[in-house]
Amino acid sequence: GGAPAAPPGSDTYKGWLFKWTNYLKGYQRRWFVLSNGLLSYYRTQAEMAHTCRGTINLSTAHIDTEDSCNIVLSNGGRTYHLKANSEVERQRWVTALELAKAKAIRMRNNQSDDSGDEEPASQSDKSELHGPLKTLSSKLEDLSTCNELIAKHGAALQRSLSELENLRLPADSGEKIKAVNERATLFRITSNAMINACRDFLDLAESHSRKWQRLLQHEREQRIRLEETIEQLAKQHNSLERACRGAPGLAGGTASTASTAKGSVQSAKGEASDEDEETEYFDAMEDAPAFITVTADPKHHRRSGSNLSGASEGHPEDWNLEDSVFESSNQSSYNESTGKDLLPRKRRRTRIPDKPNYSLNLWSIMKNCIGKELSKIPMPVNFNEPLSMLQRLTEDLEYHELLDKAVKCESSTEQMCFVAAFSVSSYSTTVHRTAKPFNPLLGETFELDRLEELGFRSLCEQVSHHPPAAAHHVYSRRGWTLWQEITIASKFRGKYLSIMPLGAIHLEFHSSGNHYVWRKVTSTVHNIIVGKLWIDQSGEIEIVNHKSKDKCQLKFTPYSYFSRDVPRKVTGVVSDADGKAHYVMSGTWDEKMECSKILHSSHGSTSTEGKQKTVYQTLSPKVLWRKYPLPENAENMYFFSELALTLNEPEERVAPTDSRLRPDQRLMESGRWDEANVEKQRLEEKQRAVRRRREAEAAEALEEGKDYEGYLPLWFERKVDAVTGELICVYKGGYWEAKDKQDWSVCPDIF
């Protein structure tokens, strides 16, 4: 624990306490700082310069003591379980927390009180406030002087007019003099009324002076606090830049390290831990490498191949055969045909209108949305890109040729390498794509028919609105079928946005019957409030071949300022049903993936955490996948790839529910964002009206004791998956037949 750094009652109070994190780590020693009614904590005292791990506002917090050494702080959904070294130290902290809480409540009440009797905080504030009042008083005195003069001259005028009335003048002259006298009287009354109104205004200004003072003081404090925050961020940025420039380079040689591919232990259910859920910075050295790869000399192992362990499925020289699938993995490109039975490619568009330069304050919209589901937040198209979520899902097929090559693999573990590379390739388009795709309307579809050109055809349908879920089915003439149902769960956490795709991806090869299943990792969009938006992928993917029981564990390493690893790193191991490792996967999710065949494995040294490292001796790596370069001027076209540029291209004969026909998306692509916003609101209101009608029908059926089916997808149906046991939407057929006949009578009117 350690003694606190300041006595209770002072503005700042610091010291060591133990904080409960999770059932795996228990209580961890943390440095706590109490200042301005906020309790913040850090892992070390040095972290105060750059990384705050969590903060709780005491003005609305509840302080409780469980036993002689424990303190429990709760504020809404956030709870801190703290422990001091002794009862005396606990009491010091409780006293400091109670005093800080009382002070924070007083400050909050003073800011919200409109009729208090406190004087302005400083002499400068008094002068700024009383200056205008003094000027108003001076002007009022001038008006009073003028009023007196008007009254004096008005009285003299009325006397003169009265004297004229007494003179013997023609009758018409007397009437005119009387009218002038009445106007003079009205003028004097109006002048008096103006003076009285000015006096009332001054009285009102004086009565509200303290309210104005508090509002002014509050705005000043907010501005100062913001300036201090920005200054701290700038200092942190500069120190990190200096640390980055001063960091030593990566060691050369043939040895390279990879992070563990084992499953991580999650926090216990119930109370959420700040460090598990909201930490943005990662300590790079906490996770010791689980294995080390060493590149072997192929010539040496040709001579001593008989002494190698049986980890690999064959001899080392097999790796270098010219007809190997690995050897030809990079010889086809996006612009080359992959099959003799396919027709020449249709000429498609290579650009879209440039993105308009419209500015919009993100924080003004997002500040009231913290903790809400992203799909339930009304968003203008300024945050979107002109593609729907169904089209983004179809972009996973950009590197479909990896699956075409996987069909040719005779070995299931070799095939697993290509499937793993394909699963990573789907994230390559996200590195610059921080804009949000359009939420599809219920019943919206998107087809990508490339059967004659690329050998596959794809169909997506939005099968649920709350929660939003999309079903996807792809058939390829090349010998594989892919299907998935993805539900997007997303949370805005103030500093960053977490996007968690839920649902399994299934891939089956026709000839071998190999059935692969995996799930996507979490995507995180950083710098939501301040700075340039950037996206990161983190988590683990386990790919399982349910026929052969082969597995591949892939780990997406989260970005860290302090790590020496390559950014966006992905590592993994392919093993068979017996757990024997055959290949090491390595690369980055935004550039390329390589595969190295394992010749020999051995146990290395034990890490500081007691984990034993495995040393893999491998042959030279082969590049399985490399990202295609972006088109020219991509930065002005939402960073779309060549495939993405074609997804919203108008096509004939598609279903009336196809995303290409969505009017708000089309208007946005054309640069007419104001019209797109109006159209987007119309479509969303139309969808809400349909949902209300459906809910009314369900309630009516319930009252009558009848069954109500609810919404049913058009081209998909829900079934229990035989492999995973999960309820999933699978393609039931009929779409492509309806397209051939151009019979879209079953399609709803959603646009």
From TrEMBL:
* Segments of skewed composition (Low complexity): 253-264
Q: Coiled-coil annotation: which residues?
A: 216-243, 673-700
Instruction: Quote a single Gene Ontology cellular component term.
Output: cytosol
Single Gene Ontology BP annotation? lipid transport
Q: Where is the composition biased (Polar residues)?
A: 326-337
Q: What family does this belong to?
A: Belongs to the OSBP family.
The keyword rRNA-binding belongs to this UniProt entry's keyword annotation? no
Q: Its membrane topology, per UniProt?
A: Peripheral membrane protein
Its localization reads: Membrane
> Which Pfam families does the UniProt entry name for this protein?
Oxysterol_BP, PH
User: What PROSITE patterns does the annotation carry?
Assistant: OSBP (PS01013), PH_DOMAIN (PS50003)
Keywords from the named record: Coiled coil, Lipid transport, Lipid-binding, Membrane, Phosphoprotein, Transport
Taxonomy-wise, where does this protein's organism fall, top ranks first? Eukaryota, Metazoa, Chordata, Craniata, Vertebrata
Which gene is annotated as encoding this protein in its UniProt record? Osbp2
Predominantly, its location class is membrane
- Which GO MF terms does the UniProt record name? cholesterol binding
What is the protein's given name?
Oxysterol-binding protein
Q: Which residues form the PH domain?
A: 10-102
Which SUPFAM superfamilies does its entry note?
Oxysterol-binding protein-like, PH domain-like
